[in-house]
Amino acid sequence: MDLLAGTAVLLFLLGAVASGYCLGRLLGRPSGFAVALFYLTVLFHVSTENGLSLSASQAGQIYSLGAFEAVLMVLGGVIVFEFIKNQLRQQPQLQQPELQEQQRQEQLEQANDTQHPELGAATGAAAGAAISAATRAARDQAWPKQHAHALQLLQARINEYGQHGSSGSKGSIILQLEPELLQAGPAAEAGSAACDGDDDEEEVWRMLPDAVFVDVYNRLPPAAQGAMRAVCTHWADAGKRTITRLRPRQFPVQNVSWCFPSLKSLNLSGCTKDITPAKLRHLRALPGLQDLTLGCHHRLIASTITDACIAELVVLTSLSSLNLSQCVHVGDGGLMSLVYLSGLRSLNISGCVAVTDLGVMLVAQLTNLTSLDMPWCVKVTNIGIKALTPLTKLANLNISGCQLVTEQGVVCLSAFTNLERLSLLNMGYSKVCVTDSALERLSGLTKLRSLNLGSMQLSNKLVTDDSMRCIAARHRELTQLGLMSLDISDAGVAQLSQLSKLQALNLRGCARVSSGCLKHLSALTGLTDLCLLHNSRLEMDDACLASLAKLPNLQILGLGNFQANASASDTCLVPLAASQHLLVLSIAFFTGRFGPETCSMLSRMSQLQHLDLQGSQHANATLLQAVGQISTLQSLHLSRCCRIDDAALQHITELSNLHTLNISICSRVTDTGLAAVTKLQSLTHLLAQQCRDVTDAGVALLGRLTKLQVLDLSLCERVTGSGFATFGGCRSMATLSLNGCASLNDGGLRAIGRIVSLTKLDLSNCQLITDVGVGYLRGLAELTGLDLALCIRVGDAAMAAIAAAMHQLATLKLNGCVRVTDLGVSEVCGIPSLLTLHLDRCVQLTDLGLGCLTRLTGLTSLRISRCPNVSDVGVCQLSRLSRLSTLSLAQCPRVTDAGLLALAPLTTLASLEF
User: Fold this and answer.
1) HSE on the CB side for 563, CA within 13 Å?
2) Which of 336-340, 351-355, 769-773 has the lowest mean pLDDT?
3) Are 152 and 184 in contact (CB under 8 A)?
4) Which residues form the signal peptide (predicted)?
5) Does any domain span residue 562?
6) Are residues 276 and 403 in the same domain?
7) 844 lies in which domain range?
8) Lower Cβ count inside 10 Å, N or C end of the chain?
9) Which residue(s) pair with 563 in the sheet?
10) What's the N-to-C CA distance of the chain in angstroms?
């Protein structure tokens, strides 16, 4: 082929490429590629026929075609492309302000977890009071009169929004503003005349400083804050610019610094599952961030934060408070990164079970720490406690649950002479470490204002009345004292009467404390919180309860689980009426009667918020009629009240503020009673365990409770689950417990599978459900906890369904699921988010299944007790689970000492059962 032919072919190719490019921009890439392919096919045909030996005339023709095609398609295509592109741009520009406003509103609603309640009359009144208060506060600051006029516009805009802006609003909102504070004079009148149009009105809004919006906003009640931001555009903008505290449901990532530049406190406990090191890197754009929460409450699923996430925090040099509670994946490596945060003053690593003495030594380098919470760091020993001595500024220290710490470690705390708060609950695993001798050594901590000793479960016989004398003599500044399950008597309590500043006293479970202690406690007139729960020798009669009337400032009183003296009258509780400030009252398991005077007394407790009557034998409809008059009540505990029936529940239907109701083991409650409960529209928690006459009809009625978050119907044997078909619209439902519902079947699971907001589901001991039913739960993508223990018909197919749909599952309990084999366990191992897995009594589990578990690299807790086919071979493979902190191998007959020794590489292991 000569030079001319080669040139022609090259130009032909360029024309084809140019055509493909231009048409690709216009029609999409597939169309452009098709055109290019067509030209290349023509070239191939011509080349094949002529053997690439093109004559001068053929070459000239191809040359002309290629040149013409290239010029025409490039110029024409670009012109057409730019024309169409400009036309497409014009349409969005017309809607851009509206779209931007919509985006701002959506971002603010999502980021600040706001549900925008309706602006009803109560909200309007609250807004008016807030604006009036803000105006009065600023009256002496010589505000420009335009600002006063802007406040008038705020009133008008709220009125307008109340009439038209909310689809469910109830008429106009009337704000009671103080006119003399909003007199703007001639300037305001002129401004009003200039603000006839929306644009001019918006300009007046711009004149109002952000600080005024914030001042008014901060004076609003929580229920009105979300709605106020919907009043105007500028309100939302100002709100974002001035918000300093944020607790989002979803991590806003890139928008966090743009939307909230003034952020100082960020709580990410509600969205830790979404956090990665890359996302945390965006926090670098918040140089003013001072308070960061990455942990969660100990009753929730453990946080998924890792050491790599903590490493991204080293640039946040302004950080002064960091909460890593329940971050079970954070170990010594993560704490090493914190060494660079020299300004850190408060650190919470409670429940960080991977932290060892080495990590505590690293924390000791943060010499500015004033508060350190590390309860249930179960690997910390005396060495770690002693390493903390350089932290001379510590005012708060919590090492509760550090069970490897002995008496020697407790004595080391005497070096922290600036301590104001100290918690030593549940200490000592094999030997009690808090003793009279140890407390004597701590007598130099004279600045203590809060001290907690003892245990919720085990009795400590080594702390006696001698320690009470020491505490009364050396710790005179105490305002809060917790003494749980200690071997102290009334004589020891008598010593505590010298603590004139004491405001809170907890004597829970102190078996030697009797009713005689009350005469000593009456001297502590400053007490606001008194707990005498679970004291078996505490017998109440009229005289004893009358002595409590000498404590006029009581706000929290716990008298549960005591015995009513035989001489006690029906009016023995009446003296409690003297405690006008009571917010919380527990008289659980009260064996006396509730006479008319007692009922009248309860109805007059106008500030009571929480009432515990569980186990009260004589609680009946008459009592609930009185309780129904306590309009401030938020929580009511009626479990084990055998006389409570449907008629009694009718008396509490007017409690509009009630959010928690417990009617468990009230055997007389039926579907009719549940119908009455549905009138409590503020209810978020309902516990109705073992109400055996409740059926699906009653359950269906509960679907009306649109705010319900937690529902417990365990041991309701007649519930099949079909009633949950009405729960499809319950977007707030998060926890459902159906343990032991013997009639629950696959059809019921089909209905439950439509409650897509569920995060925790307990189906344990529901023996009728099968793999088919579990398959219906595929829609529960948000589920983090699932309990299928003792579901004997559930097998490997169910495990496959769970692994395919529940990608956020952190806890899975399969205890006693005898049909689950190694194949099912292999399916489960495809859920990388799993932290806790229970396989006790899965009798078909073998070493092969244990080998699959090594894929769950994040696993922190594993139970495989009573698995007869598991041997040392499988246990050896578990040594690769580097984050494992709890392991149970109890009653596995084929596991020997050799298998246990193979677990030596698991340096994170804190608890081992064998």
Assistant:
1) 10
2) 351-355
3) yes
4) none
5) yes
6) yes
7) 770-913
8) N
9) 539
10) 85
Quickly state the pLDDT bin for 562 (edges 50, 70, 90).
low
Confidence of residue 833 (pLDDT cuts 50, 70, 90): confident
CB 663 within 8 A of CB 639: yes
Q: What confidence category does residue 660 fall into, taking pLDDT thresholds of 50, 70 and 90?
A: very high
Note whether 43 and 10 are within 8 A (CB).
no
Instruction: Give dist(CA 670, CA 419) in Å, integer.
Output: 54
Would you state the pLDDT for residue 32? 47
Amino acid (one-letter) located at 764: S
The three-state DSSP-derived secondary structure of 368-429 is: CCCEEECCCCCCCCHHHHHHCCCCCCCCEEECCCCCCCCHHHHHHHHHCCCCCEEEEECCCC
The pLDDT of residue 108: 42
Q: What is the DSSP string of 107-175?
A: HHHHHTT-------HHHHHHHHHHHHHHHHHTGGG---HHHHHHHHHHHHHHHHIIIIISTT--S----
Do 285 and 331 lie in one domain? The reply is: yes
398-428 per-position pLDDT tens digit? 999 998 899 999 999 999 999 999 999 998 7
- CB 476, CB 445: distance < 8 Å: no
Taking the model in full, what pTM does it have? 0.74
Kindly tell me if the per-residue pLDDT of 455 is higher than 90.
no
Residue type, 642: C
| Contact predicate 884/859, CB 8 Å | yes
pLDDT tier, 676 (very low <50, low <70, confident <90, very high otherwise): very high
Nearest to 512 by CA among 527, 497, 534, 529: 534
Report d(CA 318, CA 379) in Å as an integer: 30
Report which secondary-structure segment, H or E, holds 902: none
Asked if residue 829 and residue 791 are part of one domain, the reply reads: yes
Identify which of 573, 585, 579, 570 has the alpha carbon closest to the alpha carbon of residue 550.
Answer: 579
DSSP letter for 549, please. Answer: G
One-letter amino acid for residue 827 of the chain:
E
**Residue written as tokens 């004491």?**
502
CA-wise closest residue to 645 among 615, 624, 631 = 624
Same domain (yes/no): 232, 321: no
Mean pLDDT, the chain, whole residue set? 80
**Helix H or strand E segment including 62:** helix 56-111
For the chain, the 3-state helix, strand and coil shares in percent, each to the nearest 5, are 45, 10, 45
Same domain, residue pair 202 and 277? no
Q: Are strands 421-425 and 396-398 parallel, antiparallel or unpaired?
A: parallel
Tokens of 767: 């023996």
DSSP class of residue 348 equals E
Q: Are 382 and 357 in contact (CB under 8 A)?
A: no
pLDDT value at 575 more than 80: yes
Same domain, 50 and 127: no
Q: What is the pLDDT of residue 156?
A: 55
Q: In sequence order, what DSSP letters do the residues of 338-368 get, joined into one string?
A: HTT-TT--EEE-TT-TT--HHHHHHHTT-TT
Query: Residue 384's domain is classified under what CATH number?
Result: 3.80.10.10
Residues 402, 256 within the same domain: yes
Q: Does residue 905 form part of some domain?
A: yes
DSSP class of residue 811 equals: E
**Do 384 and 253 share a structural domain?**
yes
Q: What DSSP line would sit under 626-692, residue for residue?
A: HHTT-TT--EEE-TT-TT-BHHHHGGGTT-TT--EEE-TT-TB-BHHHHHHHTT-TT--EEE-TT-T
pLDDT single digits (tens) 119-137: 344 445 555 555 565 555 5
Work out how many domains the chain is built from and give that number.
Answer: 5
Helical packing angle, 3-27 and 56-111, nearest 10°: 30
- Whole-angstrom distance, CA of residue 544 vs CA of residue 555: 18
CA atoms of 559 and 574, how far apart (whole Å): 14
* In a domain? residue 741: no
Give the domain-ending residue among 418, 453, 475: 418
> Which residue among 361, 386, 418 closes a domain?
418
- What the block records as the tokens of 794 is 């559930």
731 and 705 Cβ atoms separated by less than 8 Å: no
